[in-house]
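Thread: Newbie trying to understand structure tokens

Hi all, I'm a second-year student working on a class project, and my supervisor (Dr. K.) asked me to get a predicted structure for one chain before our next meeting. I've only ever worked with sequences, so writing a 3D structure as a token string is new to me. If someone could post the tokens and maybe explain what I'm looking at, I'd be very grateful. Here's the chain:
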Amino acid sequence: MIDIYHFANPLSDNCLVAEECLEKLTHTFFQKTRLRFIPLINEQVSAKLIQGEQALPIMDMPYDKESLTYRVILDFKAAQIEGNKKARPFLLSLQSALITKKQPYSLSLITSIATQVGLNLDDFLTNRMSQEVIDALKADQKLAWQLLNKYSVAIVIDDSSTLETSLLTNFSKESLTTHFKNLRQQFVVKTKDLISPENAKTFA
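---
Reply by user tm_fold:
Sure, no problem. This is what the structure looks like when written as tokens:
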């Protein structure tokens, strides 16, 4: 099993490109792969939030860039309640609308995207304003502090078969493609070792 965590700034065009690239690359693996998008909030706010020194307001409409980041992440976590297969396309579509198409954030925009990816609209609209999604956001921020040497955007690749963990900070398509190509080659080599004549005798 390979676990891939993408810790990202949800309003960054570079992170959006990396997410789109990861979506395509993870489908090229032979072994089971689990991809998780983990949008990050401001480092100082995150630390205070985890320590209980600051509450996260549940706002319906963002009023500045920081509150927009909150709102996008809370919407994503609400979509994630129905599973990552719907949540990831929801996030990518929302990011594309905000970053690439320069559309303003609005309730009509998120309801349109939620409908497009097949979310239960009534449940989604209820969940996006719930304490449950705030708790899920806090859990993601804690995971980021645990896995990253420095709280910043990064891709963490954890291979349970080798007990190896890779940390990537270069989000270019070329860098990601090269790294994943190497991972696939390593898997092929390991698979050949498992079915070598020597090992075949062991299992005979």
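A couple of things are worth pointing out once you decode it. The beta strands are 2-8, 33-39, 154-159, 164-168. The longest strand covers residues 2-8. Feel free to ask follow-ups in this thread.
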